[in-house]
Design a protein that fits this description.
Blueprint (H helix, E strand, L loop, with lengths): L9 E5 L8 H11 L6 E5 L1 H10 L3 H10 L2 H5 L14 H11 L13 E8 L5 E4 L4 H8 L9 E3 L2 E5 L8 H6 L4 E5 L18 H4 L7 H11 L12 H23 L4 E3 L14 H14 L1 H8 L10
Parallel strand pairs: 1-2, 1-7, 2-3, 7-8
Antiparallel strand pairs: 3-4, 3-6, 5-6
Helix pairs in contact: 1-11, 2-6, 9-10
Length: 313
């Protein structure tokens, strides 16, 4: 009888956290460089975006786009006129998802790796796991942050951001068969942290497509990035939304991870990056790579992956 060592199935749980989620790109790249390839990928909100792009074979393409994006590019996704369902330009969002995450015809069950995205049933508050069906549709439902993105209709129910109930989907990875779960928490240390530096305004920003809505755009940029000159100044709409979401996700993340801890928990240092500062992708990706290097010895210990040995998932 051959003594064949069966390596454990590795699950990667990618947490929610809006623009901080670009760090997931760095996490995946660093793991793959070390020969640590996940068998199962589960994501919530931005984690669903990055995880979906990875399993669909589009991660390099997505990284190229995010590294080249500016604050103006981010503003183009938002309609400051405010519809009844949210601020996001849904047509541009669809273009982004189908161009950089998954094509319209790509289905979860056809992916080479097991994948799941987490969403929330708006009426019942229950978790909804997408483990089959259109990949881009699952991602859209998982990232539908209330107030910014419109809710998604699916099977006679309205779905919103999965970060409201399961910000770091360790439980989903285990349900899909993971023996070892590496989880990425984007929300560590964000409560009470605030970037008080005024971001540099580039010439391109000044020529942005929303110049005719200069006052609204200024409030948008200053509030969600976020900046306030005085402690007694009332928070703007977007700042209040962003910090409220941060508080909810921080508390739920602590509770969920206490009940079902990951085997390895990566916590990139991202408190300095605002919730919707998507243009700071390079910083976030670098932090993601650094978090893997910091925990590499522990990752190798729990997974049994030694240097130079690639997974054969």
């Amino acid at each position: 009888m051959n003594n064949v060592s069966i390596l454990p199935k590795i699950g990667l749980a990618l947490g929610s956290g809006a623009s901080r989620g670009w760090s997931h790109i760095g996490v995946i790249k660093a793991l793959l460089r070390e020969g640590i390839e996940p068998d199962i990928v589960c994501g919530t909100s931005v984690g669903a975006i990055i995880g979906g792009s990875y399993v669909a074979g589009n991660l390099e393409k997505l990284e190229h786009w995010v590294l080249g994006s500016t604050r103006t590019d981010v503003l183009r996704f938002f309609d400051i006129s405010l519809s009844q369902s949210g601020f996001v330009d849904t047509e541009r969002l669809s273009w982004f998802l189908h161009s950089y995450v998954a094509a319209e015809d790509q289905r979860i069950e056809d992916m080479a790796k097991k994948y799941a995205a987490v969403s929330t049933n708006l009426d019942t508050g229950r978790e909804v796991w997408f483990m089959e069906g259109g990949l881009a549709d699952a991602v859209r439902a998982s990232m539908a942050l209330p107030g910014l993105f419109p809710a998604v209709r699916n099977d006679q129910r309205w779905l919103v951001d999965g970060g409201l109930v399961n910000p770091v989907p360790v439980t989903v990875c285990r349900a899909l068969g993971a023996d070892i779960v590496i989880a990425v928490n984007l929300n560590s240390g964000i409560i009470g942290k605030r970037n008080n530096e005024t971001p540099e305004v580039t010439a391109e920003d000044k020529r942005g497509v929303l110049s005719n809505l200069k006052q609204q755009a200024k409030e948008y940029s200053n509030s969600i990035f976020p900046i306030r000159d005085g402690k007694d100044e009332a928070p703007g709409l977007f700042y209040a939304i962003a910090n409220s979401v941060n508080i909810v996700q921080d508390r739920i993340t602590r509770s969920r991870l206490a009940g079902d801890p990951a085997d390895v928990l990566l916590s990139p240092h991202l408190a300095h990056i605002g919730m919707l500062e998507f243009h700071r992708a390079a910083e976030a990706i670098k932090e993601g790579e650094g978090s893997v290097q910091t925990a590499l010895a522990e990752i190798r210990r729990v997974t049994g992956k030694q240097k130079g040995v690639r997974s054969s998932s």
